[in-house]
């Protein structure tokens, strides 16, 4: 059975006339313990983020404002996900190359990560990635 590259997960959405609320809980809606949280914003038009894979760290990516596209690549197949709802997140598995692009004006990308930052966990060169994962 082929391992999935990633999947969109709906988060609990509490609708309220004063404004909606969404919650992400580790080991519940996010299927791992959250060790690091970061976000990107003010991404200039035409720029992209990501462009790497992780050996161990899974990530949960949420468009908390605006929209952007996440393309996942396992060396054989590519699949793109438009993230544009703050009540949905994309679970990205380990060993998957990811690129984030097409950021709308004002987009904020929130990432919940399974691990603390560790440079050795990153594969930043696509050719190196293919040597390890696309066999």
Q: What does this 3D model show about the protein?
A:
It comes from Hallella faecis. The protein has one helix spanning 126-133, and strands at 6-10, 13-14, 21-22, 36-41, 49-54, 59-65, 68-73, 78-83, 88-92, 97-101, 108-113, 122-123. It is mainly beta and 135 residues long. It starts with 5 loop residues before the first strand and ends with a helix.
Output the keywords:
mainly beta; five-stranded antiparallel sheet; about 140 residues; globular
Query: What is the CA-based Rg, rounded?
Result: 15 Å
CATH architectural type: Sandwich
Computed structural class: mainly beta
Number of strands: 12
Count of helices?
1
**Which CATH first-tier class would you pick?**
Mainly Beta
What is the CATH H-level superfamily?
Answer: Jelly Rolls
For the sheet with most strands, the description reads: 5 strands, antiparallel
What average pLDDT do the residues reach?
A: 95
What topology, given as strand order, has the largest sheet? 1-9-6-11-4
Determine the strand fraction and express it as a percent band.
35-45%
* Shape estimate: globular
Low-confidence stretches: none
Question: Can you give the helix content as a percent range?
Answer: under 10%
Secondary-structure element order, N to C: EEEEEEEEEEEEH
Domains counted in the coordinates: how many? Answer: 1
N→C terminal distance? 16 Å
């Amino acid at each position: 059975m082929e391992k999935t590259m990633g999947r969109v997960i709906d988060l609990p959405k509490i609708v309220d006339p004063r404004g909606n609320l969404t919650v992400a809980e580790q080991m519940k809606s996010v299927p791992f313990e959250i060790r690091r949280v970061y976000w990107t914003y003010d991404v200039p038009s035409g720029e992209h983020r990501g462009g790497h894979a992780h050996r161990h760290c899974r990530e949960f990516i949420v468009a908390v404002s605006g929209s952007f596209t996440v393309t996942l690549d396992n060396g054989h197949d590519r699949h793109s996900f438009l993230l544009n709802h703050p009540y949905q997140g994309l679970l990205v598995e380990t060993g998957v190359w990811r690129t984030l692009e097409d950021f709308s004006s004002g987009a904020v990308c929130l990432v919940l990560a399974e691990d603390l930052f560790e440079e050795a966990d990153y594969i930043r060169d696509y050719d190196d990635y293919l040597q390890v994962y696309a066999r």
